[in-house]
Amino acid sequence: MDKILCVEDSPEYREVLKSALKGLHADFASTLAEARMFLKNNDNNYDLMLLDVSLPDGDGIKFLSEFNLKNKNIREMPVFIVSSDSDELSKVTAFGLGVDDYICKPFSPIELLARVQAKIRKLREQKMDSSKAIVGDIEVNQHKMSLQIQGDSEPVPEVTPIEFKIFALLSKHPGNILSRGQIIDSVWPLNTFITERTVDAHVSRLRRKIIRSKVNIETVFGVGYKLILE
Questions:
Q1: Are 99 and 60 in contact (CB under 8 A)?
Q2: What are the CA-CA distances from residue 173 to residues 25, 89, 205 (Å)?
Q3: pLDDT (tens digit per residue) in 7-53
Q4: N or C: which end of the chain has fewer CB within 10 A?
């Protein structure tokens, strides 16, 4: 479920936000100290933050600047300023710090919800796009742990999680030889007893599944394997 952190001290606007965001998981902080607590306790795991500027224990813009400098996850979190301050300089300063939107009070709850949902939807689409990569003519979908040959109407037979991890590992080092021991250490959990022949069996099945592609997994006799892009 989408998670929103709302930093707002006005009881009136807190109720407006609760009504507007009904159906979403929203945590409410009335001070910057509470906001820090929520962020810490949730490992910064929020999809978006709605942040007021004038708060009892400080300035929201300075708070944002502080976290932008210290915390990578905060920098990547979409932030909407929700403030009664419509001054142009305040807006310029906020956008200069990477704020995604600036909403002036009073605002339309319906419009605010629409902006929030649009931003979260766009963020979700970006995450899905980043889960895909191209290796030669093979599309690698990290999210689904699947492979698909571009331009091939026939789907690649479903790969197992181990086969996918082997392919992903080799694709990070194209042209380089990886020993069977390196593959075991990277793909299987620690303290798992796996023989080199087990690696060979998984690679053999993986090869058959991508045989129509221009990506080859070559055996280096007595050493291991390397991935070759034609």
A1: no
A2: 41, 49, 20
A3: 999 999 999 999 999 888 999 999 999 999 998 887 778 889 999 99
A4: N
Radius of gyration from C-alpha coordinates of the chain: 25
d(CA 61, CA 172) in angstroms, rounded, equals 41
Q: What is the reported pTM?
A: 0.58
DSSP for 3-70, written as a single string: EEEEE---HHHHHHHHHHTTTSEEEEESSHHHHHHHHHHTTT--SEEEE-SEETTEEHHHHHHHHHHH
Strand order in the sheet with 101-104: 25-29, 3-7, 48-51, 79-83, 101-104
**CB under 8 Å to 66, separation ≥6 — which residues?**
none
Give, in degrees to the nearest 5, the angle at Cα 102 between 36 and 3: 45
Query: pLDDT digit string (tens) for 172-182?
Result: 899 999 999 99
Residues 163 and 140: their CA atoms lie apart, in Å, by 12
Give the Å distances, CA to CA, from 168 to 83, 138, 139, 160, 186: 46, 11, 11, 12, 11
Q: What percent of the chain has pLDDT over 90?
A: 58
- Adjacency order of strands within the sheet including 146-149: 132-135, 138-141, 146-149
| Residue 84: DSSP 8-state | S
pLDDT band at 227 (very low <50, low <70, confident <90, very high): very high
Angle at 9 between CA 7 and CA 13, to 5 degrees: 90
